[in-house]
Task: structure prediction
Amino acid sequence: MADALERLKERLVEVVDLGKIARILSWDQQTKMPPAGTRHRAEQMATLQRLAHEKFTDPEVGKLLDELRSVEESLDPDSDDATTIRLARRDYEKAVRVPSSLRAEIAHAASAANPVWRKAKAESDFASFLPYLERNVELKLRYVECVAEGADERYDVLLDDYEPQTKTAEVREVFAELKPPIVELIAELRDREIDDSFIHGDFPPDRQRALSHEVVDLFGHRPDTWRIDPTEHPFASGPGRDDVRITTNYHPDRLESLFSTMHEYGHGLYTHQQPQHLERLPIGQACSLGIHESQSRLWENLVGRSLPFWRFFYPRLQETYPEQLGGIELGVFHRAVNRVKPGLIRIQADEVTYGMHVMLRFELEQDIVEGRVELRDLPQRWNEKMWDYLGVEVPDDAHGVLQDVHWSGGSIGYFSTYLLGTVASVQIWEAAVRDIPDLSEHVGRGEFAALREWLGEHVHSLGRKFSPQETLSRATGSTLQAQPYLDHLRRTYG
Amino acid sequence: MADALERLKERLVEVVDLGKIARILSWDQQTKMPPAGTRHRAEQMATLQRLAHEKFTDPEVGKLLDELRSVEESLDPDSDDATTIRLARRDYEKAVRVPSSLRAEIAHAASAANPVWRKAKAESDFASFLPYLERNVELKLRYVECVAEGADERYDVLLDDYEPQTKTAEVREVFAELKPPIVELIAELRDREIDDSFIHGDFPPDRQRALSHEVVDLFGHRPDTWRIDPTEHPFASGPGRDDVRITTNYHPDRLESLFSTMHEYGHGLYTHQQPQHLERLPIGQACSLGIHESQSRLWENLVGRSLPFWRFFYPRLQETYPEQLGGIELGVFHRAVNRVKPGLIRIQADEVTYGMHVMLRFELEQDIVEGRVELRDLPQRWNEKMWDYLGVEVPDDAHGVLQDVHWSGGSIGYFSTYLLGTVASVQIWEAAVRDIPDLSEHVGRGEFAALREWLGEHVHSLGRKFSPQETLSRATGSTLQAQPYLDHLRRTYG
Result:
């Protein structure tokens, strides 16, 4: 039986390694690859994904899992081995229900849709993207049909791919609690005049780059294990603890890169502190996209937009950009980087309005999956909700329904994890403060070791061993709660 | 039967794709990866190679090859399909003799040895590298044992991995013909005084970088399909026509990068012009390392060190470095970059002494494989040969036995291909001149399209369809000959 477990692990290690390789290839594609290489890369990715799927859905894996039932039952359910078997069984049962041909069709449709979306967005032409979106949705619905047995609702199947063991109904409940107070707060804040003109202007990218490196050095990245590269759409990736790759975008006319670097640092630290002894097994990987996002939002918002942090770091920023910021006081700067202003674009949204962008998408996606909306009516529905939730008028689809890459890549069910993570980040921060009462003073001295270690011990080291809710519960003493986040918003912005 | 052929090709495509992925990972490791990432990368490479090996040695492939015997016989032996079957059979019969576990051990040991070698070289500490070298050699000897049946000698097995269908005895024969005249030429030239002091000095890397890009732009690289990165040891890689990656090293105190970039351009062009309709099949890949090297040496030496080229390009070089080269005449510069001077380092060697560096390694490797030398005695044997062949005294192992990366990566059997390619490059150049009589004038005008096209048609488009000797024969009308190369050396340097 020990042998069956070893053989199962060998299989899992292969699949995990192939996933890590795919991450390197994807990083390369977004940062280094010559543009024409797309053709080769699409082939390589398809081959890699097909092999990983074949390896994992091999009937031999099913046989091993059957053999291991009694082992699993004999073990402490929270032990690494029991969890490895349980997770593998869960992933296997989902994977084998989906025919390879459907996976290939989904991958193919997504690669075909992506360039069409890019062009449609550039030209604000939803109609040209519509047939491709229809195809992506149709395939995703076929995917749902394969896996839906036993699910409470169809959307659960899609959500589960990004936020495992999480029900749509649970998310709806948390979001329902968030919505009215956030709408109210936005109404209060929307006409407040805050000057942030000075964080737009002439910010040479080479100096932004130096600052970004300085910030992550301070937070605690080490150049022998991390790298930072420029890219169009910032992301974090990397195969493991000792190879962490974050990216950022140095817009020459604004300071955004600093916050996006802090955000990606949080993702990177999660990878950097994953449990080493489990790093080639599924349970050693990230818990969920929501938990991942809680890490990035914690560093970006709870640390990076806080007054203690800027007390420490603002002099460095002023030294770097004396013309723009030399005459701007700390308090004025701090208010500017926390300015609340309803806008059109999710990725540029402040902490308060951000949630509404996510809820809008979450609601529309459920309508799509349940057939309550015709795809051709999406732009109108989008624009109505933008007006209802944020009071902004959408001038064209490029600034509306076409703004995000996700649907073009067939990613439906992803968006809510952004807000789940944002909400969780406050609970996690507060739990850290309970254990490290002078955490704000640490931040004010530019010292982050205690926070890193706390996150490592209470969140990162758990890997994918527990569900997101269980992980959060073990880290903070409570499952996901709307109230701490709402209190934080009110305290910070109200 | 058509179906069996299609199924064989599907398998081959997967294996070729995995090889292309491995090339990206290796490029990444040498140019971008955080140093500590080695640990993860070794695991990824081992997994990738094991999977490729499993896929290719699957009994199903053997069955398909059996089924296809009659198809192969019914086809024109030079047709793409017949060659695909023949090559697959040849590769398969070699591959099935090697257990996957041994392949994985070889890959893993190589990844582990590389950083140790780096450090050992930096500290000139052969002893610290010795156990890793011993491990690499031990594994290679186990590999030889698996495959040696039917080979004339053990070294043939290793040579065949780099220079397929080529016998050690054939190489020895060509080298034996080269050695006395080269030794004689070196003796004649070694005391000739040529001033090359001005190509050493202050050459800021950023200007070298601009020049390197200018040269390859001129030769004909396109930024949408190529990239150039700095690295410690220049190499060329990339998965195919539209994703070509060359690297170079901008030493701030000398002009070497220009020649190394031209060299790697030659390799890159071979990849860039591989036959597109065969790019995912083995026959669409490079013929051999020797033929690869013939391409790089052609651009580096026959083009890049020629007087016509410098007549065209020297004014640009003088403009870039007016302080160093403003007062140096073209002829003086041209003699300096063709100066013959025995030295310690292979990759810095001039065209005449270069061959001796290769022969030394080729001889030592045969001694290693035949057990005629203890690895701990390698430094001494190395130093003795350097004295015998080149009359230079090796001051430390960093400048001796530790200088090359190959053995750290488990590449034994590789070195002779450098000289085989160098010899072939002269034959290929002369064949091109027969077809394009005014080729030197093209070069003198900075026009390279005709040469690129000729190489594409006569060499690159053949892919791996024929043996190196057959490829050379089809391109030039003759198999490998020492004499044209010796004549070229005497004409150029004598």
